[in-house]
Amino acid sequence: MTHYSPAELAAQLKTGLLSFPVTHFTPDLSFDEAGYREHLSWLSQYDVAGLFAAGGTGEGFSLTPAEIDKVVRTAVSEVNGRVPVIAPATGGTATAIEQAQAAEAAGADGVLLLPPYLTEAGQRGLSEHVSAVCRSTNLGVTVYSRANAILTDVTVAELADRNANLVCLKDGVGNIELMTRTYARVGDRLTYIGGLPTAETFALPLLQLGVSTYSSAIFNFVPEFALGFYADVVAQDRESVYRKLNEFVIPYLDIRDRMKGYAVSIVKAGLTAIGRSAGPVRPPLQDLTTEEVAQLTDLIGKIQ
After folding, report:
1. Is there a contact between 129 and 121 (Cβ–Cβ < 8 Å)?
2. pTM (two decimals)
3. Average pLDDT of the residues in 200-216
4. Each residue of 137-169: pLDDT tens digit?
5. DSSP state of 167
6. What rounded mean pLDDT belongs to the chain?
7. Which pLDDT value is given to residue 14?
8. Which tens digits make up the pLDDT trace of 219-240?
9. Which tens digit of pLDDT belongs to each residue from 270-299?
10. H-only helix segments in the chain
11. Among 140, 211, 255, 295, who pairs with 6 as Cys (CB 3.0-4.6 Å)?
């Protein structure tokens, strides 16, 4: 059973950094439950506002529905109410509804509604899709605006009016005008989450637009650095933010940008670099090369 009402979930998520843990795989690419539990146990030593299981960084797109359910149930069991656990819902409307209802049955505290798979759609269709998922569950819903499901400010406002349990908007676009229009129209009715790859890069400017928190992939392997960076953003300490961008984040991006899909692969490589391997990524992603892992290891060493 969930520990948070939708309103309580929205209030909680805006209080700190958000964790998007990787999903551990064995060499044969099956789910490594023991490794995943150990990872969550380690991360739980640190203060975060929420944990998103089987999200993008967690390779949710490569998991079967049964695997997603197992990952979510494992996270709920391991976290044991310390922070809210948010489960994914994706695919077409019928599939997303099934996943949202499975998340509620698994004891998750909220749902992250990702874009429908592949197909493009207009705003009216997207609005009906999001609303249908919201109606299917009592959990608080975070809608992820990105890729083939970018929501306009008008659509977000309509969705917020129609669905009391739509509590968060995760922005994967980074369009300053769109975010400004959305916050101006909707205000604090929603909690706004930064959701661009390596969200630290955009955290300071987006803070000015009402985006009070973000999903941190690097928290997986440099949690103290990630939390310190978040604290600098919240304090609007520009000097510290830009120093850390230059020291670590931008060189990290230089490695990440060498290959499509490395935004996920590099996180698992980071765990390998610190001696906490999460196993390989699943195809169609590919792992970093040995040379790139060595470069990342050197980079991590400079901030520890």
Report:
1. yes
2. 0.96
3. 95
4. 999 999 999 999 999 999 999 999 999 999 999
5. E
6. 97
7. 96
8. 999 999 999 999 999 999 999 9
9. 999 999 999 999 999 999 999 999 999 999
10. 6-13, 33-43, 65-79, 93-105, 123-135, 153-162, 176-186, 203-207, 223-234, 238-244, 250-256, 262-273, 290-301
11. 140
Closest by CA to 17, choosing from 186, 278, 222, is 222
Is the distance from CB of 149 to CB of 119 less than 8 angstroms?
no
Dihedral of CA 7/44/114/30: which sign? negative
Neighbours of 26 (CB within 10 A): 13
- How many residues are there in the chain? 304
Question: What is the C-alpha to C-alpha distance for residues 231 and 47, in angstroms, rounded to an integer?
Answer: 12
DSSP 53: T
CA distances from 250 to 4, 21, 243, 262 (A): 36, 21, 10, 14
For residue 45, the model assigns a pLDDT of 93
To 5 degrees, how large is the angle CA 130–CA 69–CA 24?
Answer: 115
| Token pair recorded at residue 17 | 């950094």
Active site (catalytic) residues: 144, 170
Residues 6 or more apart whose Cβ sits within 8 Å of residue 64? none
- Give CA–CA dist 304/300, Å, rounded: 7
CB distance 84 to 50 below 8 Å: yes
d(CA 178, CA 192): 13
Whether residue 116 is preceded by a cis peptide bond, meaning omega within 30 degrees of 0, is no
Name every residue whose Cβ is closer than 8 Å to that of residue 229 and which is 6 or more positions away in sequence. 200, 203, 241, 244, 249
Rg of the Cα atoms in the chain: 18
Tokens of 136: 């299917």
Matching residue, tokens 């929501």? 151
